[in-house]
Amino acid sequence: MTSSPNLLVELFVEELPPKALKKLGEAFAQVLLAQLRAQGLAGDASQLTAYASPRRLAAHITDVLPRAADKQVSQKLMPVTVGLTADGQATPALLKKLAALGADAAAVPQLKRAPDGKAEALFYDSTVAGATLAEGLQKALTEAIAKLPIPKVMTYQLESNCDLPGWSSVQFVRPAHGLVALHGSQVLESIEALGLKAGNTTHGHRFEALADPVLIANADSYAQTLAEQGAVIASFDERKATIARQLKEAAERVGGGVRAIEDEALLDEVTALVERPNVLVCQFEKEFLDVPQECLILTMKANQKYFPLLDAAGKLTHQFLVVSNISPADASAVIGGNERVVRPRLADAKFFFDQDRKKTLESRAPLLAKVVYHNKLGTQGERVQRVRAIAKSIAQQLGATALGKQVDQAALLAKTDLVTDMVGEFPELQGTMGRYYALNDKLDVAVADAIEDHYKPRFAGDELPRGEVGVIVALADKLETLVGMFGIGNLPTGDRDPFALRRHALGVIRMLVEKDLPLDLDTLLVSTLPAFGDKIEDATPALSDFIYDRLAGSLREQGFSAQEVDAVLAHRPQRLADVQKRLEAVRAFAALPEAPALAAANKRVGNILKKADAPVSPNVSEAVLQEQAEKDLYAALQTVAPKAHAQFAAGDYTASLQTLAALRTPVDAFFEHVMVNAEDPALKANRLGLLATLHDAMNRVADLSRLVAA
Questions:
Q1: How far is CA 266 from CA 179, 305, 322, in A?
Q2: Any idea which of 25-34, 147-156, 447-456 has the lowest mean pLDDT?
Q3: If both were cysteines, with which of 107, 539, 544, 628 could 103 make a disulfide (CB 3.0 to 4.6 Å apart)?
Q4: Which residues, 6+ apart, have CB-to-CB distance to 435 below 8 Å?
């Protein structure tokens, strides 16, 4: 079976936004393919290759038909009683409907009758001609352009192929200047978009193309022709791989075990800035290395898109790599130009660092009173006082009063670097610079570390604060944000969380769990309230729900089933550090052969107790027991429950649940032979008390009834 020619579509535009280029390229190509498949012009076997460079979006699709196959369509017309008279003749309504479909009375005998609900309807079978590639591609291209995830649309005027040249306008991510549409070697001249008519020529590198325009002979020669004649690597992935390889080779040429800093986002952005990469080695004066390397790295990456070189120990060197878009025979001018450009940036960083160190962090603390935090919660200065009070409370709950001075000093100074010149220029360095300035002020290392670490964890997978002082201040900082925002009703919505409350909640969870802190969650939240005075309402119940929801989601992401998580969190365990052990115990219990029956019985017990006329106390009188099955269950509980309770108290949740597995036989016998709702009130109350005792024993680790499928 012969395959159809391949298709190439390219939009040539002005420089696209680099941070959006990868998504734009993928979306453009994928929508084109999906639309062609939907119209029957491309099949499941058709392969897609997306291209995206600073000045083009393109797609290559294999095996595209010149015309889609005709389709047999069965169309419902109307009920038989409406379309035909009693003697089987077509009614005017039916004839009108057929005329609209391009048929006449001659088609009436071929109409089919078929049930349609309670009635019978008439159906018209016809053949619909398949779309031509010109028709289908025009629709697909229009759809692909409309669905592009454009960060910000531009409006510009058209100069040709429009009603009013110079006045008619279109909207797109950047002005478009060329359109290529090739099916094999055939130009699809009827295709139009953004005031452009399709052709077979494009443009290559602004300075290094061998020809301009570049003629694309056929769809399959696109990438090779652009590379050879246009000096452009059209594929985003190929260009990215080329840059990564050149970065590695350049670092090896420098020697000494240096390596380029790893930053996937920077690599993607640079890939979107160049059409034919050429990595060059540059350097700056070693005196700048006296500035904290985080400052230098950030200014080189953020402002210049350079790749700093680190030595084997991870320390910044005085050399860096530049990804140039040109490849001159003598690169000295390019290297010198980049070195001249970076020098003032590094000088600024050094100036900020030197100036900031002339003042202590403590002397800057009063300046926070002039920095607004939130119109309902006051200034950063007020916030600092709240964090200090909350941190003091947490230290007391942990019995860490000996650290009180360090905790208070770290909480007082944690935000002071916000009013330094360096952080004013580079907000990303908040905390990091605070640590450097604290060490410069000869403060304790624990305090300096806490100033940097109180923002941690900043993102999923980030490390936690390294010391106890840092953990306490970080907890206080996050709790102040959570309790404060919930207290003024500033809650996250489905797509908005400007104060990162979800991230703060997960940070609190991780610290409580991974640091194994003996703190009760609700006590922790309530103890935070006094720091706010009358500024907020008490929203701790809603905040507690929010944190448990985040915890549930996190646990499911770790591989625990929804039933296991639901069973453990149903009791809202206050020590979050215990949750993992409870989950592992529930998982081990669920694997026991006795588990399904006991879980089902537990659910049954819970339902019986809920339906009782009054709350049931777990009190049992042995003298009132009558049936052998209830006596056996009572005796088993006397033996099993104390042992399980002791294991629970010792934190051995797995052993506690496994001990309870011995109750399966007496529990099964009880429900088989004993009538709980006896006519004798005393007997009924005693049996309910026995079930309450059983329920209490079985549900300390988790609500086992939640393991039963609904």
A1: 30, 7, 12
A2: 147-156
A3: 107
A4: 448, 449, 451, 452
Nearby residues of 261 by Cβ (< 8 Å), 6 or more positions away: 297, 301, 307, 308, 309, 310
Closest to 380 in 3D by CA, of 340, 415, 356? 415
Q: Are 555 and 670 in contact (CB under 8 A)?
A: no
Alpha-carbon distances, residue 101 vs 79, 83, 91, 116 (angstroms): 17, 15, 16, 21
Tokens representing 393 are 């409370």
Q: What's the pLDDT score for residue 106?
A: 79
Per-residue pLDDT for 628 more than 80?
yes
What three-state secondary structure class fits 239?
A: helix
Q: Using only the alpha carbons of the chain, give its radius of gyration.
A: 36
Taking the C-alpha atoms of residue 622 and residue 635, their distance in angstroms, rounded to an integer, is 9
> Are the CB atoms for 327 and 278 separated by under 8 Å?
yes
Q: Residue range 97-124: average pLDDT? A: 83
Q: Is 269 helix (H, G, I), strand (E, B) or coil?
A: helix
Q: Which 3 state secondary structure label does DSSP give 613?
A: coil
Angle, CA of 106, 112 and 113, to the nearest 5°: 130
- The whole-chain average pLDDT of the chain stands at 92
Please enumerate in sequence order all residues whose Cβ is within 8 A of that of 454, keeping only pairs 6 or more positions apart, or say none: 410, 411, 414, 431, 465, 470, 473, 474, 476, 477
Contact at 8 Å (CB) between 80 and 90? Answer: no
pLDDT of 305 > 90? The answer is yes
Nearest to 533 by CA among 396, 374, 386, 371: 386
Tell me the one-letter amino acid at 523.
Answer: T
CA atoms of 394 and 388, how far apart (whole Å):
10
Q: Exposed (0-12), middle (13-18) or buried (19+): which is 422, by Cβ within 10 Å?
A: buried
- Is the pLDDT reported for residue 72 higher than 80? no
| Amino acid, res. 407 | V
Q: Tell me what percent of the residues of the chain surpass a pLDDT of 90.
A: 70
Q: Is the peptide bond before 498 cis (omega within 30 degrees of 0)?
A: no
Q: Say how far apart CA 310 and CA 40 lie, in whole Å.
A: 53
Instruction: Assign 81 a pLDDT band (cuts: 50, 70, 90).
Output: confident
Residue 278 has pLDDT above 70, yes or no: yes
Structure-derived torsion over alpha carbons of residues 701, 703, 705, 706, reported in degrees to the nearest 10 = -110
**Phi and psi (nearest 5°) for 49?**
-125, 120
Non-local CB neighbours of 392 within 8 Å, separated by 6+ positions: 404, 407, 408
Q: What are the C-alpha distances in Å from 534 to residues 388, 488, 612, 691?
A: 17, 11, 43, 47
pTM of the model: 0.81
Q: How far apart are CA 108 and CA 87, in angstroms?
A: 13
Residue (of 591, 592, 595, 569) closest to 582 by Cα position: 569
Q: Which amino acid makes up residue 371?
A: V
Return d(Cα 432, Cα 421) in angstroms, integer: 13
Q: Counting Cβ atoms within 10 Å, is residue 118 exposed (0-12), middle (13-18) or buried (19+)?
A: exposed
Residue 368, number of CB atoms within 10 A of its CB? 20
Q: What is the DSSP string of 443-469?
A: --HHHHHHHHHTT---STTPPPPSSHH
Tell the residue number behind the tokens 């600024």, with chain if given.
348
Nearest to 149 by CA among 282, 28, 286, 297: 28
The count of residues in the chain is 710
What pLDDT was estimated at residue 381? 96
pLDDT band for 274, please (50, 70, 90 cuts): very high
Is the distance from CB of 77 to CB of 126 less than 8 angstroms? no
